[in-house]
Amino acid sequence: MERMITQLMNERKATRQFDPNFHLAEEEVHELIEMATTSPSSSNLQPWRFIVVRDEDVRKQLRPLALNQAQIEEASAIVVIVADTRMHERVEQINRMNETSGYMTKEQADRKIERDYETYEGKSDIERFKIAMFDAGLITMSLTLAATAKGIDSGIMGGFDPEGVASLFELDEHLVPAILVALGKRREEPQQTTRLPLQDILL
Q: Which among 82, 126, 148, 149 would be 20 to 30 A from 38, CA to CA?
């Protein structure tokens, strides 16, 4: 297992040159997203939402909002990972699911619902934004590793106009575009990169 995880982590490389003739089925993209949702999140509130972009016209509108990066149109699909800053509104739903699944008793679920709602409702918009963005980063890594395990290449894009993307998809104010992930098949080997040695990152 350790060898498999290490291999996946080493194989995952940022892909920017995608084969435009390679196509992922919608079910394949959904499977990757579902795999990625095993990621941890603050209080298990899962403050992530996803927009899968495949339509050519939408891609053309999205590309100038993403620094004109070619992979927006060349990749098989673009996944917009959206951070939900009102994650506490799902407290009841998530914990009742845990109760129904037998992971919690009703009493445990009741207590967690009350505690989590009070905790997150009491936080400022900025605090909830930071939590949601942090969790969006976690699930992004899970998504790209899941893709690597399936032989699918990926490219993480942080360079885009969040307000423009939110407007394009008519998102409510509490839904903030966090990261774009391109999925598909590379048409050339990605550039290798170095990492700082351990002695330079241990404090």
A: 126
